[in-house]
Design a protein that fits this description.
Strand content: under 5%
Number of strands: 0
Structural class: mainly alpha
Distance between the termini: 82 Å
Number of helices: 10
Radius of gyration: 22 Å
Amino acid sequence: MPVWVWVLIAIGVVVVLGVLGWNALARRRTSRLQDRFGPEYDRMVGTAENKREAESDLAAREERRAQLDIRPLSPAACARYIESWQVVQAQFVDDPSVAVASADSLIQSVMSERGYPVDDFEQRAADVSVDHPQVVENYRDGHRLAEAGAGGTGSTESLRQAMRHYRAVVVGVVVAGALTTAVPAAETAYHLAPKFELASPFTCPACLSSAKV
């Protein structure tokens, strides 16, 4: 067999192995991003032009998040924010729109104290999605309803829903944030939080632990 034929065969084998290796890496990347971002992965794939673009965006979020100094809240800060949240919830009875605006402001304060940049909502949501993919869905829904309320097009019921979504965010970025910068095991509770009654109290395990010392 001529030498050039062997060369072509060798090149073909290298190309096939390269394609197989690339596909294996792509599958591992997809699996890792799905595990980390959960429903946020599905949302991005559904809104992007293609899966590759969506995954590139999510990977870029991870890189940006790695550059941020995200800090857990101290027990004292956790207790302070929980108390503030209870005050905000009480406002809802007399002035729902003001309560929702206060809730949004409180969440921004928490994020800022934890180290998340807060200049732009979409960037805030993207940054938070890396650590709390279940929370960010509630954050977006709450923000959308809050903006509608601020524009005068939201009903009292939609503002109530906004508060429930924001409550889920508080559970995520305050309560879990007092324990660690990311608590995957607690994510199950985050998407359940909107089902809780607005008046139902919640406490921070870290705060209770601190109080026993």
